[in-house]
UniProtKB/TrEMBL annotation:
This is Nuclear factor 7, brain-like. GO terms for molecular function: zinc ion binding. SMART domains: BBOX, PRY, RING, SPRY. InterPro entries: B30.2/SPRY, B30.2/SPRY_sf, Butyrophylin_SPRY, ConA-like_dom_sf, PRY, SPRY_dom, TRIM/RBCC, Znf-RING_euk. Keywords: Coiled coil, Metal-binding, Zinc, Zinc-finger. It comes from Oreochromis aureus (Israeli tilapia). Residues 13-53 form the RING-type domain. Residues 93-133 form the B box-type domain. Residues 74-95 are annotated as: Disordered.
Length: 462
């Protein structure tokens, strides 16, 4: 009978209290008749669970086939009076506590946890607490119902966690594909830069080789011309030496003058720097390429953690800026995520030393910027040192500090510089344009602090 009662409760709709008809399951693991759920949603004008009030993450519901088969089978057994059921009823009717007094209303002894005959066993139970059986049965059933409710609630919690793990697993697959794509894109940029740099340096090497080749060719042409001229003079002198006395005397002076003129020309010199300047091309090559690469890449002291971002926040691919969108993303309800406020944390915390970073808020109307301690409750109603949040806030055109005090500023802030001196227990805020001091909060820090960003309305911040 207890098993039957458990099954009956498990297969009952919480709206109509009847056995399920075409049961559907919500993301919170609660089950209802399909028609009952649709009527309830039409009346309430929303798609919240009738029990836990949690908004359904599923736009459309589908019949839970396994639960339907179980409910239909149970309903059929209820409508048909089986021999086994009749036998159970007979056994219940035939069950008696006392053969001598079968018609006497029995008592229930709470001390011995059993039904007793008030006639035969009265002397043995005078000091015990006894109540009518009907009253005891009613109380015990209420207790069992309470136990059943606890079991159902516990099972629902486990189902909720199981569903969250399923969501986490699916989200991990999306994270894997997205992160792989971004890693490949970043390396493609670096590879493209290196390829272009390689081609540039090879081109410079080839240009130097061509330039110096032209210089050598020019010098060699001059050398060849001089060699040709000298060869002609040598041939002329040799011919002159072959002449006889009288012809020799009449022509030797011209030959001698030409030979002496060419001999007086300065000796040829090799041009300095004719070889390729290999040291210029190879010296510290990797270092010089790395220095140039630094101009192409940027370092951010704070990287946002997408696993902490509220479902309404959208982070940039490089995780350095955030905006609030018009639609909510389907993200798993992991423990790190901010579910109540439009907030995201930095990916790395600080436990010592000095740190600073700048936040560009532009003309965004409402925001909170600062730090939050690791153990702070993300769902606290306000951001203040009382709740482990040290911040600067803008709301409805006014600037306030974490203690709720209004700050008077000469101009609207476009950027904010946050400075943390952990060891001295100071969090300071400045206008980086002229380093005007805005506000400093002093406290004693005992645990890790994370950068904190809250965007109350749609817009961008980085």
């Amino acid at each position: 009978m207890a098993e039957k009662l458990l099954l009956e409760n498990f297969l009952s709709c919480h709206v109509c209290s009847e056995t399920f008809r075409d049961p559907v399951s919500l993301s919170c693991s609660h089950n209802f008749c399909s028609s009952c759920l649709q009527k309830f949603w039409e009346q309430t004008k929303n798609k919240n669970c009738p029990i836990c009030k949690r908004k359904s993450s599923r736009d459309e519901t589908s019949i839970n086939v396994s639960l339907k088969e179980l409910a239909d089978s149970f309903a059929k057994r209820q409508s048909e009076s089986s021999p086994e059921t009749e036998k159970e009823k007979e056994e219940e009717k035939e069950e008696v506590v006392c053969d001598k007094h079968p018609d006497v209303p029995y008592w229930y002894c709470e001390d011995e946890d059993r039904a007793v005959c008030p006639v035969c066993e009265f002397p043995h139970h005078q000091s015990h607490k006894v109540v009518p059986v009907e009253e005891a049965v009613s109380d015990l059933k209420e207790q069992l119902k309470s136990d059943l409710k606890s079991l159902q609630d516990k099972r629902n919690k486990y189902k909720q966690v199981e569903e969250t793990y399923n969501e986490v697993r699916e989200h991990m697959k999306k994270q894997l594909l997205s992160t792989e794509r971004q890693i490949r894109a970043e390396f493609n940029k670096l590879q493209q830069f290196l390829k272009e740099e390689e081609e540039s340096r090879l081109a410079a090497l080839r240009e130097e080789e061509e330039q110096k080749g032209r210089t050598i060719s020019r010098e060699m042409k001059m050398i060849e011309e001089q060699i040709s001229s000298l060869s002609d003079s040598i041939s002329a002198v040799e011919e002159e030496l072959q002449k006889h006395s009288v012809p020799f005397l009449s022509s030797y002076k011209d030959t001698q003058s030409r030979a002496r003129a060419q001999s007086s020309v300065s000796d040829p010199q090799l041009v300095s720097g004719a070889l390729i300047d290999v040291a210029k091309h190879l010296g510290n090559l990797s270092f010089r390429v790395w220095e140039k690469m630094k101009e192409k890449v940027h370092f951010s002291p704070v990287i946002l953690d997408p696993n902490t971002a509220n479902c309404c926040l959208y982070l940039s691919d490089d995780l350095t800026s955030v905006r609030q969108g018009d639609t909510w993303q389907q993200l798993p309800d992991n423990p790190e995520r901010n579910t109540l406020h439009p907030t995201v944390f930095g990916s790395e915390g600080f436990r010592s030393g000095k740190h600073s970073w700048e936040v560009e808020v532009g003309d965004h109307p409402d925001w909170i910027v600062g730090l939050i301690k690791e153990s702070a409750d993300k769902n606290e109603p306000c951001a203040s040192p009382e709740f482990g949040i040290w911040c600067l806030e803008r709301q409805t055109g006014e600037y306030t500090n974490g203690d709720g005090q209004t700050l008077t500023l000469k101009k609207s802030l476009q950027r904010i510089r946050v400075q943390l001196d952990y060891d001295r227990g100071e969090v300071s805020f400045y206008d980086p344009e002229d380093m005007t001091h805005i506000y400093t909060h002093r406290d004693t820090f005992t645990e890790k602090l994370f950068p904190y960003f809250n965007i109350a309305e749609a817009g961008d911040a980085k």
